[in-house]
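User: tokens in, sequence out, please.
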């Protein structure tokens, strides 16, 4: 559990924010090109999940940008390569082992900068401003959960 210090600056969303994932896949879709950063432990987990060696995963689904690795996107749609059509609609083929960046959506720094950026993000994400109310502490915990696999049951 993350506890906020009283000396911390109070965020504009101190009353919390509503968000409910509707599993529409828009957060994983183009048209803009972006980066889906993955760490070494996440690469290992995704490779294990797909039953392939990490080296093969890197060759097929990742690319290097500077010193980091990112999941490749479809060159035509700019969708994440793991965004696939399912019987329920569009979904992530590696959802159970998706990277921290995906798990933290929509609670990214940029989206939380101001009420305007939050509401602007909501124009593309129908789950923003609806559903469960997330407290500032829950939002901070989600933002800082970069090593999510440490929280998995053994």
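Assistant: Sequence out:
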């Amino acid at each position: 559990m993350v506890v906020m210090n009283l000396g911390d600056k109070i965020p504009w969303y101190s009353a919390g924010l509503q968000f409910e994932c509707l599993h529409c896949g828009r957060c994983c879709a183009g048209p803009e090109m972006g980066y889906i950063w993955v760490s070494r432990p996440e690469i290992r987990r995704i490779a294990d999940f797909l039953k392939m060696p990490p080296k093969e995963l890197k060759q097929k689904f990742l690319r290097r940008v500077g010193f980091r690795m990112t999941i490749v996107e479809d060159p035509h749609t700019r969708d994440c390569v793991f965004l696939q059509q399912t019987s329920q609609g569009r979904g992530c083929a590696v959802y159970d082992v998706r990277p921290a960046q995906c798990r933290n959506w929509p609670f990214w720094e940029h989206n939380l900068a101001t009420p305007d950026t939050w509401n602007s993000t909501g124009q593309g994400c129908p789950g923003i401003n609806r559903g469960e109310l997330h407290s500032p502490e829950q939002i901070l915990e989600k933002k800082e959960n970069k090593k999510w696999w440490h929280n998995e049951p053994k």
